[in-house]
Amino acid sequence: MLTFIGLAIIVIIVALLLTEKVSPMIAMVIVPLIGVLVAGFDLGQVKEFYSDGTRSVIQIVIMFIFAILFFGIMSDVGLFRPLINALVKLTRGNIIAVSVGTVLVSVVAQLDGAGATTFLLVVPALLPLYKKLHMNPYMLFLLLAASAGVINMLPWGGPTGRVATVLEMDVNELYRPLFGVQLIALAYIMALAVFLGLREKRRIIKEFGVLPNVSELITPAQMTEEEAYLAKPKLFWVNVVIFILAMAVLFLGKLPSGYVFMIATSVVLLINYRSPKEQLERINAHAGGAIMMASIILAAGTFLGILKGSGMLDAIANDLVKILPNAMLPYLHIIIGILGVPLELVLSTDAYYFGLFPVVEQITSQAGVAPTSAGYAMLIGSIVGTFVTPLSPALWMGLGLANLSMGKHIRYSFMWIWGLSLVILASTIITGIITLI
Asked: Where is the Citrate transporter-like domain (predicted)?
């Protein structure tokens, strides 16, 4: 019963996000509430689920609010304009070069293992370039999601650590074979970037009749009157220092990320806009996006709180393996690996690795499969899909920064991401990293 209701909740929410029939907040508040009441839980229990769910995301909400304010104000003062102009000059307006560059930038940004930081660094830097070249911003998110997902196999990445925890082994030992997998996967992603770049180039020519003029692109665009008023060219290097310090403190992890952006936002406002009126104007200018993202993340928190607290996620993970014929059980890790990306849409990271993986590992071990093979299959099968699911707070934040739709991102990216996952999984089976029996 819990499995059926839990799957129904997830399927309906994903369908609503894909079809954009209602706002994400409404979908993630109303549907789980109806589901948990139908499952027989009383209002007192629902209150507990709500409290646990919102408590788990409150720090993320704080970070999103002030991160959006910070990056919005940094854009106002003109911090990213020279960077975008430099990237345009470097790529000479070459669509394919920008596509490949997106992969490389995303790889570097994800090296710290923090998805939120990756989106914070990559999206504000590359989105204006994509717009300037008339490139589809959802291609940016596809390449970013795939690249960051593969790099997230690093030992300090959450998924690899979770697998190592379940297997009770050293995470560095578990990771060693995965380095080769990452190289193979990045080669596939680079090939995809070239292919998508070529396709995007043809689309732009078809839609606009001609590619953007390189000479016009290299020449910095004239600022509008409002942009010129908000820009602070004399304080450019001061703002660069503020930005670098904020990112450094964020990487060091000495302070909570929300507090880092809270401080950074206050400092950049104080230095660039001296009067309270101007400061409030800048806050109000970006408050809409910040509040929208905060409401979505809080709604996602209640959604996950209900699924976890009611036991629906655990029920889904356990029951998934019960419907398979006995003859398929020795290959269960491969089957789950193949379904890894779709499962990202219905299971949280913890439910996948701490709920489903122990069950799969136990069953396949009895059939003679090495526990590490089961771990690699489930890890490699799903990790490329880390940022193509509405259960990813970092993805919500990135889409919020770009003012893009989760549903459109899933529609654009899902099949490419799943295809990449299957090719990478097949390659690791061929190379012997994952054994069938």
From this structure: 15-381
